[in-house]
Design goal:
The chain is of the alpha+beta class. The chain is built from 14 helices and ten strands. Strands 2-1-5-4-3 form a five-stranded antiparallel sheet, with helices on both faces. The chain has a five-stranded mixed sheet with strand order 7-8-6-9-10, sandwiched between helices. The N and C termini lie far apart (67 Å).
Amino acid sequence: MEILSRQLAERIVDRTMKAVNKNVNIMNEKGMIIASGDKSRVGTIHEGAVLALKRRSEFSIDEKQCKELNGVQEGTNIVIEFKENVIGVIGITGKRDEVIGYGRLIKMAAEMMIEQAYVMRELEWNNKIKENMIVSLINDDQGSFKLLEKYAKKFKLTNNYPMAVFIVQIDFEKISEKRDIDTLNNVISILEANFEGSPAAAIDSKPIVIIYKCPNMNYRPVTCKPRIEGVYRKISHKTKNNVKISMGKVYNKLTDICKSYEIAKKTLLFGRKNYSQENVYIFDILKYQMLFLQDNARWKLNELKNSYELISKNDKNGELMETLKVFIEENGELNKVSNRLFIHRNTLNYRLNKIYKLTNLNPKRYVDLFWLYSSIINFKTTWN
């Protein structure tokens, strides 16, 4: 990254020359003038600056030396330092005793401006990396996944940790594009402050996507709604616009973030259509209703298949599937289920709890049982 650019040098010259009635030159690390109050000198080598760079210290030029050196005028040259490196030289025209004080003040001002510009460029660069990372994750860009993993580590997103995508949609009124950008940046700041360690970025200008890092491995999304509603109120108060937030499914792998994003989009559409008076839509709360939508959304089959496989892959003897089958057929009456399976009621409860732990779906809860039943009839080859 170029530290002392021509544009930044020109800004330093413009600002400092307003404060001192002297010509100011800025030279790069090779001694070339890259900005000056005297435009005719730009692009020439300043031999006084070259000597200052070699010495890594101030070098003043008197009337006699002006005749011996090329491209110089009487004055003083002071090195510009950044992070313990000399990156350029400030030259101020005039007799040393008259300009040395100005020169040192200009050096301080220039180094502050360079530090500020560096921080801003670093921030812009980090924001660009963050945006590219989020876009790649939600678009399932496997081709750049190695680079993506490097970016993810930078933002402390690790594989095998529960994460979900939030989508924040702001309904902008007809206002200026700059106002829109300022609003989006404010919302991103609110999100990242309230969901620590969770990167957010505006995608294609709008909406905002945040990759939410869940607090722990056993996190249940339904418990998040009050917190999201609190963040919604902050955003709504700050923006004065209509705001909607949706939360996709929680996944444990970075490669599954794209699935959470697609589900968050579907959840947002469903929520806005069916619960327009509400402002926060969470997939885990709405998924049972969304299952009945008359569309062929891939997420439905993926989610049902995932629930089925969580049981089948941990059911070597088939006892969990058989238990679930009988439990459904006997309408959840535990005594009848126990008698049909010839097992103790405690054993039955153990099996049902195991299904709950594997899938996060409680067979004793009707909506969860319906989901489990739907997954089995869609993916189990036989139901005897």
